[in-house]
Amino acid sequence: MQISPHDVLIVIDMQNDFCPGGALAVADGEAVIQPIQRIAPHFQHIILTQDWHASGHTSFASSHPGKRPFEQIELDYGPQTLWPDHCVQGSHGAEFHPALHLPQAELILRKGFRREIDSYSAFFENDRTTATGLAGYLRERGVTRVFFAGLAYDYCVGYSALDARRLGFPAFIIRDACRAIDLNGSAAKIETEFARAGVTVIDSPRFSS
Ligand code: VGL
Ligand code: ZN
Fold it and tell me: Using CA positions, which residue lies closest to atom 6 of ligand 1?
């Protein structure tokens, strides 16, 4: 697959808390760093996202007495899965994994920073309407196609790719550069939506120089 100067690689949430030993560790999460490092030189645009929650965030089970991580509740903007406290602003867990080395990244987009609303997607908060500004950034920079890698395949990577399609960007997920949480079949569920929305799932060996 040929990468053009107008393509962007968006590396989703490669943070300590999503890697082994972290508060919301994704199984084998750090295994994606090697493929990410290998494909990064093909891209002239690289963006990193950073899950960045206020303490007492509404997505934390600890903010809802009697609730436990991985349960679901209804909030005014819809269903919300509850998570262990993770990626608290300024904490070690919120820092990028030390083996991720992408100093050429042109933008770090923080999301989920408002206490009362979560944001899985890099484009919209979980009400599906409050924009992060990323679509405008990409358009002003002349980016046409969006490639995704990182964590987690079935949450922040997946929701970002679906929103990219909704906004009209061709969207590709580099599957071997992602790992899933897979909560109650979430990985299979989101793949059904990828097919419907036209998200293309590819493997990193398809990148040639
Ligand atoms: C994520 C759950 C909660 C993710 C972030 O990066 O996929 N998942 N916050
Ligand atoms: Zn989060």
Answer: 156
Q: Which residues surround ligand 2, an ion (CB under 5 A)?
A: 51
User: Minimal CA–CA distance to 106: which of 59, 44, 53?
Assistant: 44
The whole-model pTM stands at 0.98
Query: Nearest ligand, CA of residue 156?
Result: 1
Mutate-to-test residue for ligand 1 from 14, 57, 120, highest number of ligand atoms within 8 A of CB: 120
> What is the mean predicted confidence (pLDDT) over 15-30?
98
Kindly provide the residue ranges of all beta strands, DSSP E only, lying in the chain, ordered along the sequence.
Answer: 7-12, 45-51, 72-75, 78-81, 107-111, 145-151, 171-179, 200-202
Q: Compute the mean pLDDT over every residue in the chain, rounded to the nearest whole number.
A: 97
Among the atoms of ligand 1, which is closest to the Cα of residue 15? 6
Give residue 120 CA to ligand 1 midpoint distance, Å.
6
> Buried b / exposed e across 167-196, counting CB within 10 Å, b at 16+?
bebebbbbbbbbbbbbeeebbeebbeebee
Distance CA 40, CA 52 (A): 23
pLDDT tens readout for residues 89-128: 999 999 999 999 999 999 999 999 999 999 999 999 999 9
The residue contributing the CA closest to ligand 1 atom 1 is 156
**CA neighbor of 2 nearest in space, from 145, 164, 100:** 145
Q: Is 147 in the pocket of ligand 1 (CB under 6 A)?
A: no
